[in-house]
Predict the structure.
Amino acid sequence: MVEEFAFDNAEERRKVRQNGTGWIEVIAGSMFSGKSEELIRRLTRARIARQKVQVFKPGIDARYSVEEIASHSGQKHLSVPVSSTAQMMSQIDDDTQVVGIDEAQFFDMELIAAVNHLAEAGKRVIIAGLDQDYTGKPFEPMPQLLSIAEFITKTHAICVKCGATANYSQRTVESEARVEVGASDKYEARCRRCFVPHADAPTLN
Ligand code: ADP
Ligand code: ZN
């Protein structure tokens, strides 16, 4: 049986359990909003419930470790780095009940069909990812994943400028590459008012 997972809507949870399929949960938000923490929390609870869990992340994100997903607050969970959706799919065992995916914005567009397939095969798929790039544009394949998910959690950070709810990842180093891997050395959380949709000077004050 599935565990008591994060979303609160008991009615939807009951329905999804009844028909016996799997489903997709997406955790989306800006950097520092707690996506990895929330993903790790759900995966830990699934493991406590003795479910078979497999976790993947793109090989591109060598932020802290190549074999773990890590939150900015230091929580960790084992994961397997993969360079493509196909590589991930070839490693998923038939008897796996829960598939976790972090940094989904760095995956290819094949991820959309793949997670649908996993959910149809009865698996619970939990996906975390940045929903916008550093310019504020939707970060594919997150928009598509949000569309097909049964359950969506939007997480928010705190604006480092003013303390308001932050929905944006402000780049603080000069680079126009869409993918510029980093953490607080290259990005900070900003609200709608404080965000500027291009690289901004570092906050030194
Ligand atoms: P994400 O995966 O969304 O980047 P993480 O789960 O890795 O986020 O990290 C969330 C943690 O980051 C918070 O619990 C907090 O300890 C820390 N943190 C650092 N800066 C901020 C900020 N500006 N707003 C909120 N949390 C922050
Ligand atoms: Zn602000």
